[in-house]
Amino acid sequence: VPSRPAIQIPTDLTEGKRAPISCSVEHTCPPSPPTLQWNRAGYKLTDRQQSLKDGVWKAETVMEYLPSYRDHGAELECKATYPNGLRSQRRVTLNITFSPKNTRVLIPDGKKERKEGDAVSLTCESDANPAANAFTWYNNKRDGTVELREEQGRSITVTVGRGRETFSCTARNPLGTENSTLSELQVLFSPKNTRVLIPDGKKERKEGDAVSLTCASDANPAANAFTWYNNKRDGTVELREEQGRSITVTVGRGRETFSCAARNIIGDGKSTVLGLQVLYKAKDVIIEGKDEVKEGAALELECHFSDYNPPTTQYSYSWYLNGNPVNGETGRILQINNITESHSGNYSCNVQNGAGPSSSPGFAVTLTSATTGEEQLTTVISGISIISGSVAGAVLIILLILALYLYLRYRKSQKGGASGGRRVEPDYQNSQPTESPYAALQMGDTAVYDVMKNPQATESPYAALQMGDTAVYDVMKNSHSTENPYAALQLRDAALYHDIKLKNSERLDINPK
Protein backbone atom coordinates (compact mmCIF):
# COMPACT_ATOMS: atom_id res chain seq x y z
CA VAL A 1 0.00 0.00 0.00
CA PRO A 2 1.59 3.27 -1.01
CA SER A 3 2.25 5.83 1.66
CA ARG A 4 -0.08 8.84 1.92
CA PRO A 5 1.46 12.26 1.35
CA ALA A 6 2.04 14.58 4.30
CA ILE A 7 1.08 18.29 4.10
CA GLN A 8 2.78 20.88 6.23
CA ILE A 9 0.96 24.21 6.46
CA PRO A 10 1.72 27.30 8.57
CA THR A 11 -0.55 27.82 11.53
CA ASP A 12 -1.29 31.43 10.53
CA LEU A 13 -2.48 31.91 7.01
CA THR A 14 -3.43 35.55 6.53
CA GLU A 15 -4.88 36.93 3.36
CA GLY A 16 -2.29 38.63 1.25
CA LYS A 17 0.73 37.16 3.07
CA ARG A 18 2.68 34.49 1.14
CA ALA A 19 3.28 31.24 2.98
CA PRO A 20 5.10 27.99 1.92
CA ILE A 21 3.04 24.82 2.00
CA SER A 22 4.81 21.49 1.42
CA CYS A 23 3.64 18.04 0.39
CA SER A 24 5.98 15.00 0.81
CA VAL A 25 5.88 11.23 0.49
CA GLU A 26 8.45 8.45 1.27
CA HIS A 27 9.53 5.97 -1.38
CA THR A 28 12.34 3.46 -2.13
CA CYS A 29 12.95 4.08 -5.81
CA PRO A 30 15.07 7.14 -6.23
CA PRO A 31 15.34 6.74 -10.02
CA SER A 32 11.56 6.79 -10.37
CA PRO A 33 10.10 8.76 -7.49
CA PRO A 34 6.31 9.31 -7.20
CA THR A 35 4.80 12.42 -8.72
CA LEU A 36 3.22 14.99 -6.34
CA GLN A 37 0.38 17.27 -7.52
CA TRP A 38 -1.65 20.10 -5.81
CA ASN A 39 -5.27 20.93 -6.48
CA ARG A 40 -4.26 24.60 -6.66
CA ALA A 41 -2.63 25.90 -9.81
CA GLY A 42 -0.79 29.05 -10.57
CA TYR A 43 1.64 29.00 -7.70
CA LYS A 44 5.39 28.49 -7.79
CA LEU A 45 6.42 24.93 -7.01
CA THR A 46 9.76 23.58 -5.88
CA ASP A 47 10.40 19.78 -6.16
CA ARG A 48 13.19 17.98 -4.29
CA GLN A 49 14.29 14.52 -2.99
CA GLN A 50 15.96 13.69 0.23
CA SER A 51 17.65 10.42 1.35
CA LEU A 52 16.51 9.34 4.72
CA LYS A 53 17.97 6.01 6.00
CA ASP A 54 17.98 2.39 5.09
CA GLY A 55 17.34 3.16 1.40
CA VAL A 56 14.29 5.24 2.06
CA TRP A 57 13.85 8.51 0.15
CA LYS A 58 11.47 11.49 0.57
CA ALA A 59 9.97 13.19 -2.45
CA GLU A 60 8.73 16.74 -1.62
CA THR A 61 7.07 19.67 -3.45
CA VAL A 62 6.78 23.14 -1.91
CA MET A 63 4.11 25.64 -3.06
CA GLU A 64 4.48 29.37 -2.42
CA TYR A 65 0.87 30.02 -1.51
CA LEU A 66 -0.80 33.45 -1.47
CA PRO A 67 -3.81 33.13 0.81
CA SER A 68 -7.15 34.56 -0.31
CA TYR A 69 -10.41 34.96 1.60
CA ARG A 70 -12.00 32.96 -1.18
CA ASP A 71 -9.94 29.89 -0.09
CA HIS A 72 -10.96 30.18 3.54
CA GLY A 73 -12.56 26.89 4.53
CA ALA A 74 -11.59 25.26 1.28
CA GLU A 75 -9.73 21.92 1.05
CA LEU A 76 -6.13 21.81 -0.07
CA GLU A 77 -5.24 18.45 -1.63
CA CYS A 78 -1.90 16.85 -2.48
CA LYS A 79 -1.91 13.68 -4.62
CA ALA A 80 0.99 11.19 -5.04
CA THR A 81 1.14 9.00 -8.16
CA TYR A 82 3.61 6.08 -8.20
CA PRO A 83 5.32 4.56 -11.26
CA ASN A 84 3.17 1.46 -10.97
CA GLY A 85 0.09 3.63 -11.21
CA LEU A 86 -0.90 3.53 -7.62
CA ARG A 87 -2.16 6.76 -6.05
CA SER A 88 -2.59 8.25 -2.65
CA GLN A 89 -3.68 11.73 -1.45
CA ARG A 90 -4.18 13.92 1.61
CA ARG A 91 -6.54 16.87 2.20
CA VAL A 92 -6.46 19.75 4.67
CA THR A 93 -8.94 22.62 5.29
CA LEU A 94 -7.52 26.09 4.88
CA ASN A 95 -8.06 28.51 7.73
CA ILE A 96 -7.34 31.96 6.35
CA THR A 97 -7.78 35.12 8.34
CA PHE A 98 -9.00 38.18 6.47
CA SER A 99 -10.77 41.49 6.92
CA PRO A 100 -14.54 41.82 6.20
CA LYS A 101 -15.47 41.10 2.63
CA ASN A 102 -18.75 41.26 0.70
CA THR A 103 -20.31 43.49 3.32
CA ARG A 104 -24.02 44.02 2.68
CA VAL A 105 -27.31 45.14 4.23
CA LEU A 106 -29.94 42.45 4.50
CA ILE A 107 -33.66 42.68 5.23
CA PRO A 108 -34.66 39.60 7.17
CA ASP A 109 -38.15 39.33 5.65
CA GLY A 110 -36.81 40.20 2.22
CA LYS A 111 -39.43 42.92 1.55
CA LYS A 112 -37.91 45.99 0.02
CA GLU A 113 -41.19 47.78 -0.65
CA ARG A 114 -42.36 49.73 2.38
CA LYS A 115 -44.70 52.56 3.21
CA GLU A 116 -43.53 55.83 4.58
CA GLY A 117 -43.31 55.51 8.36
CA ASP A 118 -42.87 51.73 8.44
CA ALA A 119 -40.37 50.20 10.94
CA VAL A 120 -37.86 48.02 9.09
CA SER A 121 -35.22 45.63 10.49
CA LEU A 122 -31.81 45.72 8.80
CA THR A 123 -28.76 43.45 9.28
CA CYS A 124 -25.15 44.18 8.36
CA GLU A 125 -23.65 41.00 6.91
CA SER A 126 -20.04 40.39 5.84
CA ASP A 127 -17.53 37.59 5.16
CA ALA A 128 -14.66 37.92 7.64
CA ASN A 129 -12.20 35.82 9.68
CA PRO A 130 -12.40 36.48 12.47
CA ALA A 131 -16.03 37.61 12.16
CA ALA A 132 -16.73 41.33 12.18
CA ASN A 133 -17.37 42.64 15.66
CA ALA A 134 -18.09 46.34 15.06
CA PHE A 135 -20.58 48.04 12.78
CA THR A 136 -21.51 51.54 11.69
CA TRP A 137 -24.77 52.42 9.97
CA TYR A 138 -25.48 55.16 7.46
CA ASN A 139 -28.57 56.74 6.01
CA ASN A 140 -27.75 57.74 2.47
CA LYS A 141 -29.80 60.82 1.65
CA ARG A 142 -29.89 62.63 -1.64
CA ASP A 143 -27.93 65.51 -0.21
CA GLY A 144 -25.31 63.32 1.47
CA THR A 145 -24.63 60.36 3.73
CA VAL A 146 -25.58 60.67 7.39
CA GLU A 147 -24.10 58.40 10.05
CA LEU A 148 -26.67 56.87 12.37
CA ARG A 149 -24.55 57.18 15.50
CA GLU A 150 -27.16 55.72 17.77
CA GLU A 151 -27.23 52.52 15.72
CA GLN A 152 -24.08 50.38 16.23
CA GLY A 153 -25.22 46.76 16.23
CA ARG A 154 -25.12 44.17 13.55
CA SER A 155 -28.89 44.43 13.24
CA ILE A 156 -30.93 47.61 13.60
CA THR A 157 -34.51 48.81 13.20
CA VAL A 158 -35.22 52.04 11.35
CA THR A 159 -38.33 54.05 10.50
CA VAL A 160 -38.30 54.73 6.80
CA GLY A 161 -39.39 57.92 5.11
CA ARG A 162 -38.83 59.95 1.99
CA GLY A 163 -35.41 61.04 3.16
CA ARG A 164 -34.35 57.66 4.45
CA GLU A 165 -34.86 55.29 1.57
CA THR A 166 -31.29 53.90 1.27
CA PHE A 167 -28.97 52.52 3.94
CA SER A 168 -25.44 51.16 4.21
CA CYS A 169 -23.12 49.83 6.91
CA THR A 170 -19.46 49.30 7.73
CA ALA A 171 -18.16 46.05 9.25
CA ARG A 172 -14.88 45.81 11.20
CA ASN A 173 -12.59 43.11 12.59
CA PRO A 174 -8.94 43.21 13.73
CA LEU A 175 -7.73 42.93 10.17
CA GLY A 176 -9.72 45.80 8.71
CA THR A 177 -13.06 47.35 7.69
CA GLU A 178 -15.31 47.37 4.69
CA ASN A 179 -18.32 49.44 3.62
CA SER A 180 -21.39 47.78 2.32
CA THR A 181 -23.13 48.58 -0.89
CA LEU A 182 -26.27 50.71 -0.68
CA SER A 183 -29.46 48.94 0.18
CA GLU A 184 -32.36 50.80 -1.37
CA LEU A 185 -35.80 50.45 0.09
CA GLN A 186 -38.75 51.12 -2.15
CA VAL A 187 -40.53 53.51 0.20
CA LEU A 188 -44.09 54.25 -0.88
CA PHE A 189 -45.44 57.65 0.10
CA SER A 190 -48.16 60.06 -0.91
CA PRO A 191 -47.28 63.11 -3.03
CA LYS A 192 -45.09 65.61 -1.20
CA ASN A 193 -43.77 69.02 -2.18
CA THR A 194 -46.55 69.35 -4.75
CA ARG A 195 -46.11 72.48 -6.84
CA VAL A 196 -47.25 74.18 -10.04
CA LEU A 197 -44.49 74.75 -12.56
CA ILE A 198 -44.35 76.90 -15.68
CA PRO A 199 -42.03 75.24 -18.20
CA ASP A 200 -40.67 78.52 -19.55
CA GLY A 201 -40.58 80.11 -16.09
CA LYS A 202 -42.39 83.30 -17.15
CA LYS A 203 -44.92 84.48 -14.57
CA GLU A 204 -45.82 87.72 -16.34
CA ARG A 205 -48.42 87.21 -19.04
CA LYS A 206 -50.85 89.19 -21.16
CA GLU A 207 -54.58 88.77 -20.87
CA GLY A 208 -55.67 86.05 -23.27
CA ASP A 209 -52.30 84.27 -23.37
CA ALA A 210 -52.26 80.46 -23.39
CA VAL A 211 -50.03 79.25 -20.55
CA SER A 212 -48.76 75.70 -19.96
CA LEU A 213 -48.79 74.53 -16.34
CA THR A 214 -47.36 71.31 -14.85
CA CYS A 215 -48.27 69.72 -11.53
CA ALA A 216 -45.03 68.32 -10.07
CA SER A 217 -44.60 66.34 -6.84
CA ASP A 218 -42.33 63.91 -5.02
CA ALA A 219 -44.20 60.62 -4.71
CA ASN A 220 -43.67 56.86 -4.79
CA PRO A 221 -45.22 55.51 -6.82
CA ALA A 222 -45.45 58.57 -9.02
CA ALA A 223 -48.70 60.52 -8.90
CA ASN A 224 -51.11 59.36 -11.57
CA ALA A 225 -54.17 61.57 -10.98
CA PHE A 226 -54.39 65.35 -10.86
CA THR A 227 -56.99 68.02 -10.14
CA TRP A 228 -56.55 71.65 -11.12
CA TYR A 229 -57.99 74.73 -9.43
CA ASN A 230 -58.42 78.33 -10.45
CA ASN A 231 -58.06 80.39 -7.28
CA LYS A 232 -60.25 83.44 -7.81
CA ARG A 233 -60.69 86.28 -5.35
CA ASP A 234 -64.21 85.14 -4.53
CA GLY A 235 -63.29 81.48 -4.06
CA THR A 236 -61.54 78.44 -5.53
CA VAL A 237 -63.04 76.88 -8.65
CA GLU A 238 -62.20 73.35 -9.76
CA LEU A 239 -61.27 73.07 -13.43
CA ARG A 240 -63.12 69.82 -14.00
CA GLU A 241 -62.17 69.60 -17.64
CA GLU A 242 -58.47 69.74 -16.79
CA GLN A 243 -57.20 66.47 -15.23
CA GLY A 244 -53.76 65.81 -16.69
CA ARG A 245 -50.37 66.39 -15.16
CA SER A 246 -49.85 69.24 -17.61
CA ILE A 247 -52.57 71.59 -18.82
CA THR A 248 -52.89 74.73 -20.92
CA VAL A 249 -55.05 77.59 -19.68
CA THR A 250 -56.04 80.94 -21.12
CA VAL A 251 -55.38 83.59 -18.50
CA GLY A 252 -57.54 86.62 -17.83
CA ARG A 253 -58.22 89.17 -15.16
CA GLY A 254 -60.21 86.64 -13.16
CA ARG A 255 -57.77 83.75 -13.56
CA GLU A 256 -54.50 84.98 -12.08
CA THR A 257 -53.67 82.13 -9.68
CA PHE A 258 -53.69 78.35 -9.99
CA SER A 259 -53.07 75.29 -7.82
CA CYS A 260 -53.24 71.52 -8.23
CA ALA A 261 -53.66 68.31 -6.26
CA ALA A 262 -51.62 65.16 -7.06
CA ARG A 263 -52.72 61.64 -6.06
CA ASN A 264 -51.29 58.12 -5.98
CA ILE A 265 -52.31 54.85 -4.30
CA ILE A 266 -51.03 56.07 -0.92
CA GLY A 267 -52.71 59.47 -0.76
CA ASP A 268 -52.72 62.97 -2.20
CA GLY A 269 -50.97 66.30 -1.80
CA LYS A 270 -52.03 69.84 -2.67
CA SER A 271 -49.75 72.45 -4.11
CA THR A 272 -49.27 76.00 -3.02
CA VAL A 273 -50.88 78.72 -5.14
CA LEU A 274 -49.02 79.93 -8.21
CA GLY A 275 -49.68 83.58 -8.99
CA LEU A 276 -49.48 84.90 -12.54
CA GLN A 277 -49.02 88.62 -13.15
CA VAL A 278 -51.62 89.10 -15.87
CA LEU A 279 -51.21 92.27 -17.90
CA TYR A 280 -54.30 93.52 -19.70
CA LYS A 281 -55.25 96.51 -21.79
CA ALA A 282 -57.21 99.47 -20.50
CA LYS A 283 -60.93 98.71 -20.28
CA ASP A 284 -63.94 100.87 -21.18
CA VAL A 285 -61.93 103.69 -22.77
CA ILE A 286 -64.18 106.70 -23.40
CA ILE A 287 -63.85 110.41 -24.20
CA GLU A 288 -65.61 113.09 -22.16
CA GLY A 289 -66.05 116.71 -23.20
CA LYS A 290 -68.29 119.10 -25.15
CA ASP A 291 -69.32 117.89 -28.57
CA GLU A 292 -70.29 121.40 -29.81
CA VAL A 293 -67.74 124.20 -29.62
CA LYS A 294 -67.88 127.75 -31.04
CA GLU A 295 -65.36 128.75 -33.61
CA GLY A 296 -62.40 130.45 -31.96
CA ALA A 297 -63.10 128.94 -28.53
CA ALA A 298 -61.01 126.26 -26.72
CA LEU A 299 -61.62 122.52 -27.13
CA GLU A 300 -60.92 120.23 -24.14
CA LEU A 301 -61.42 116.46 -24.25
CA GLU A 302 -60.49 113.98 -21.51
CA CYS A 303 -59.66 110.28 -21.92
CA HIS A 304 -61.03 107.92 -19.23
CA PHE A 305 -60.85 104.17 -18.62
CA SER A 306 -62.10 101.92 -15.83
CA ASP A 307 -59.63 99.05 -15.35
CA TYR A 308 -55.97 98.35 -15.99
CA ASN A 309 -52.84 96.34 -15.19
CA PRO A 310 -50.07 97.45 -14.90
CA PRO A 311 -50.89 100.77 -13.13
CA THR A 312 -51.54 104.06 -14.89
CA THR A 313 -47.97 105.21 -14.39
CA GLN A 314 -47.04 102.79 -17.14
CA TYR A 315 -49.57 104.09 -19.64
CA SER A 316 -49.17 106.38 -22.63
CA TYR A 317 -51.86 108.24 -24.53
CA SER A 318 -52.28 109.27 -28.15
CA TRP A 319 -55.08 111.21 -29.83
CA TYR A 320 -56.54 110.87 -33.32
CA LEU A 321 -58.79 113.09 -35.42
CA ASN A 322 -60.58 111.31 -38.25
CA GLY A 323 -58.04 108.48 -37.94
CA ASN A 324 -55.00 110.76 -38.16
CA PRO A 325 -52.67 111.42 -35.20
CA VAL A 326 -53.07 114.74 -33.42
CA ASN A 327 -49.43 115.84 -33.40
CA GLY A 328 -47.77 116.47 -30.06
CA GLU A 329 -50.71 115.30 -27.95
CA THR A 330 -49.75 112.42 -25.63
CA GLY A 331 -51.51 113.33 -22.39
CA ARG A 332 -54.77 112.21 -20.89
CA ILE A 333 -56.32 115.64 -21.63
CA LEU A 334 -56.43 117.06 -25.15
CA GLN A 335 -56.52 120.89 -25.30
CA ILE A 336 -56.75 122.93 -28.49
CA ASN A 337 -57.11 126.72 -28.32
CA ASN A 338 -58.79 128.90 -30.97
CA ILE A 339 -60.29 126.01 -32.89
CA THR A 340 -61.25 126.26 -36.53
CA GLU A 341 -63.26 124.18 -38.96
CA SER A 342 -60.23 121.89 -39.40
CA HIS A 343 -60.57 120.80 -35.77
CA SER A 344 -64.11 119.45 -36.15
CA GLY A 345 -64.62 115.74 -36.78
CA ASN A 346 -64.36 112.36 -35.09
CA TYR A 347 -61.87 112.14 -32.19
CA SER A 348 -60.54 108.95 -30.58
CA CYS A 349 -58.16 108.24 -27.71
CA ASN A 350 -55.60 105.39 -27.70
CA VAL A 351 -54.31 104.08 -24.34
CA GLN A 352 -51.13 101.96 -24.45
CA ASN A 353 -49.64 99.81 -21.68
CA GLY A 354 -47.49 96.69 -21.48
CA ALA A 355 -50.39 94.54 -22.64
CA GLY A 356 -51.04 96.57 -25.79
CA PRO A 357 -53.20 99.42 -27.10
CA SER A 358 -56.87 100.04 -26.39
CA SER A 359 -58.94 102.63 -28.28
CA SER A 360 -62.06 104.56 -27.36
CA PRO A 361 -65.17 104.81 -29.56
CA GLY A 362 -65.34 107.85 -31.81
CA PHE A 363 -66.36 111.18 -30.25
CA ALA A 364 -67.83 113.64 -32.78
CA VAL A 365 -67.04 117.34 -32.28
CA THR A 366 -68.98 119.92 -34.34
CA LEU A 367 -68.09 123.58 -34.80
CA THR A 368 -70.69 126.36 -34.42
CA SER A 369 -70.17 129.89 -35.89
CA ALA A 370 -69.78 132.75 -33.38
CA THR A 371 -71.72 135.26 -35.71
CA THR A 372 -74.65 132.91 -36.02
CA GLY A 373 -75.23 133.14 -32.31
CA GLU A 374 -75.27 136.96 -32.36
CA GLU A 375 -77.69 137.03 -35.28
CA GLN A 376 -80.00 134.66 -33.48
CA LEU A 377 -79.90 136.85 -30.38
CA THR A 378 -80.69 139.97 -32.49
CA THR A 379 -83.59 138.17 -34.15
CA VAL A 380 -85.02 137.16 -30.77
CA ILE A 381 -84.73 140.73 -29.43
CA SER A 382 -86.36 142.14 -32.60
CA GLY A 383 -89.19 139.65 -32.31
CA ILE A 384 -89.75 140.62 -28.69
CA SER A 385 -89.81 144.33 -29.67
CA ILE A 386 -92.35 143.71 -32.44
CA ILE A 387 -94.57 141.71 -30.12
CA SER A 388 -94.32 144.38 -27.43
CA GLY A 389 -95.22 147.14 -29.95
CA SER A 390 -98.17 145.15 -31.26
CA VAL A 391 -99.54 144.60 -27.76
CA ALA A 392 -99.21 148.33 -26.90
CA GLY A 393 -100.98 149.32 -30.13
CA ALA A 394 -103.82 146.89 -29.44
CA VAL A 395 -104.28 148.33 -25.94
CA LEU A 396 -104.45 151.89 -27.32
CA ILE A 397 -107.04 150.93 -29.93
CA ILE A 398 -109.20 149.27 -27.27
CA LEU A 399 -109.03 152.41 -25.09
CA LEU A 400 -109.92 154.60 -28.07
CA ILE A 401 -112.96 152.50 -28.94
CA LEU A 402 -114.07 152.60 -25.31
CA ALA A 403 -113.76 156.41 -25.22
CA LEU A 404 -115.73 156.84 -28.45
CA TYR A 405 -118.44 154.54 -27.17
CA LEU A 406 -118.82 156.47 -23.94
CA TYR A 407 -118.84 159.81 -25.74
CA LEU A 408 -121.52 158.75 -28.21
CA ARG A 409 -123.71 157.52 -25.40
CA TYR A 410 -123.37 160.86 -23.71
CA ARG A 411 -124.43 162.80 -26.85
CA LYS A 412 -127.40 160.58 -27.33
CA SER A 413 -128.60 161.17 -23.80
CA GLN A 414 -128.28 164.98 -24.26
CA LYS A 415 -130.53 165.03 -27.33
CA GLY A 416 -133.34 162.94 -25.95
CA GLY A 417 -133.08 163.66 -22.22
CA ALA A 418 -135.07 166.23 -20.08
CA SER A 419 -132.32 167.27 -17.79
CA GLY A 420 -131.31 170.95 -17.56
CA GLY A 421 -127.71 170.28 -17.62
CA ARG A 422 -125.51 172.78 -19.25
CA ARG A 423 -124.36 171.87 -22.73
CA VAL A 424 -120.97 172.90 -23.84
CA GLU A 425 -120.23 172.87 -27.55
CA PRO A 426 -116.75 173.57 -28.63
CA ASP A 427 -116.12 175.57 -31.73
CA TYR A 428 -115.20 172.81 -34.18
CA GLN A 429 -115.94 174.93 -37.20
CA ASN A 430 -113.07 177.27 -36.51
CA SER A 431 -110.66 174.41 -36.68
CA GLN A 432 -109.27 174.23 -40.17
CA PRO A 433 -108.40 170.93 -41.83
CA THR A 434 -104.85 172.05 -42.22
CA GLU A 435 -104.46 172.63 -38.48
CA SER A 436 -102.89 169.98 -36.29
CA PRO A 437 -105.49 167.51 -35.04
CA TYR A 438 -103.81 167.49 -31.66
CA ALA A 439 -104.77 171.13 -31.09
CA ALA A 440 -108.41 170.37 -31.91
CA LEU A 441 -108.37 167.40 -29.59
CA GLN A 442 -106.94 169.56 -26.85
CA MET A 443 -109.80 172.07 -27.24
CA GLY A 444 -112.37 169.26 -27.22
CA ASP A 445 -110.78 167.76 -24.12
CA THR A 446 -111.15 171.06 -22.31
CA ALA A 447 -114.86 171.20 -23.10
CA VAL A 448 -115.39 167.59 -22.01
CA TYR A 449 -113.43 168.22 -18.83
CA ASP A 450 -115.61 171.26 -18.07
CA VAL A 451 -118.79 169.24 -18.54
CA MET A 452 -117.48 166.47 -16.28
CA LYS A 453 -116.56 169.00 -13.62
CA ASN A 454 -119.91 170.93 -13.42
CA PRO A 455 -122.79 168.43 -14.00
CA GLN A 456 -125.63 168.26 -11.53
CA ALA A 457 -125.69 165.44 -9.05
CA THR A 458 -128.58 163.82 -10.85
CA GLU A 459 -126.90 163.84 -14.25
CA SER A 460 -124.96 160.87 -15.55
CA PRO A 461 -121.31 161.66 -16.21
CA TYR A 462 -121.45 159.42 -19.28
CA ALA A 463 -124.01 161.76 -20.92
CA ALA A 464 -121.48 164.54 -20.75
CA LEU A 465 -119.10 162.43 -22.72
CA GLN A 466 -121.56 162.14 -25.61
CA MET A 467 -121.18 165.77 -26.57
CA GLY A 468 -117.53 165.20 -27.24
CA ASP A 469 -118.10 162.45 -29.83
CA THR A 470 -118.56 164.93 -32.71
CA ALA A 471 -115.34 166.71 -31.87
CA VAL A 472 -113.45 163.44 -31.71
CA TYR A 473 -114.88 162.31 -35.00
CA ASP A 474 -113.94 165.59 -36.63
CA VAL A 475 -110.41 165.29 -35.37
CA MET A 476 -110.12 161.74 -36.77
CA LYS A 477 -111.55 162.87 -40.09
CA ASN A 478 -109.33 165.89 -40.62
CA SER A 479 -106.03 164.45 -39.36
CA HIS A 480 -103.34 164.03 -41.96
CA SER A 481 -102.15 160.52 -42.83
CA THR A 482 -98.65 161.43 -41.82
CA GLU A 483 -99.69 162.30 -38.29
CA ASN A 484 -100.33 159.74 -35.57
CA PRO A 485 -103.74 160.44 -33.97
CA TYR A 486 -103.32 157.60 -31.48
CA ALA A 487 -100.77 159.43 -29.38
CA ALA A 488 -103.10 162.42 -28.95
CA LEU A 489 -106.01 160.17 -28.13
CA GLN A 490 -103.97 158.32 -25.54
CA LEU A 491 -103.26 161.59 -23.72
CA ARG A 492 -106.90 162.59 -23.79
CA ASP A 493 -108.16 159.19 -22.63
CA ALA A 494 -106.04 159.38 -19.53
CA ALA A 495 -107.65 162.74 -18.58
CA LEU A 496 -111.19 161.43 -19.19
CA TYR A 497 -110.61 158.36 -17.06
CA HIS A 498 -109.34 160.52 -14.20
CA ASP A 499 -112.39 162.84 -14.26
CA ILE A 500 -114.87 159.94 -14.38
CA LYS A 501 -113.22 158.31 -11.40
CA LEU A 502 -113.26 161.62 -9.46
CA LYS A 503 -116.98 162.33 -10.09
CA ASN A 504 -118.01 158.81 -9.09
CA SER A 505 -116.19 159.15 -5.80
CA GLU A 506 -117.93 162.54 -5.10
CA ARG A 507 -121.35 160.99 -5.69
CA LEU A 508 -120.59 158.12 -3.41
CA ASP A 509 -119.70 160.63 -0.69
CA ILE A 510 -122.93 162.75 -1.14
CA ASN A 511 -125.68 160.16 -1.64
CA PRO A 512 -125.46 158.53 1.79
CA LYS A 513 -126.14 161.91 3.47
UniProtKB/TrEMBL annotation:
Residues 5-93, 100-183, 191-277, 282-366 form the Ig-like domain. InterPro entries: Ig-like_dom (IPR007110), Ig-like_dom_sf (IPR036179), Ig-like_fold (IPR013783), Ig_sub (IPR003599), Ig_sub2 (IPR003598). CDD domains: Ig (cd00096). Residues 415-436 are annotated as: Disordered. Keywords: Membrane, Transmembrane, Transmembrane helix. The keyword Membrane applies. It holds the Pfam family Ig_2. It comes from the Eukaryota. The chain crosses the membrane at residues 386-408. This is Ig-like domain-containing protein. It comes from Xenopus tropicalis (Western clawed frog). The lineage of its organism: Eukaryota, Metazoa, Chordata, Craniata, Vertebrata.
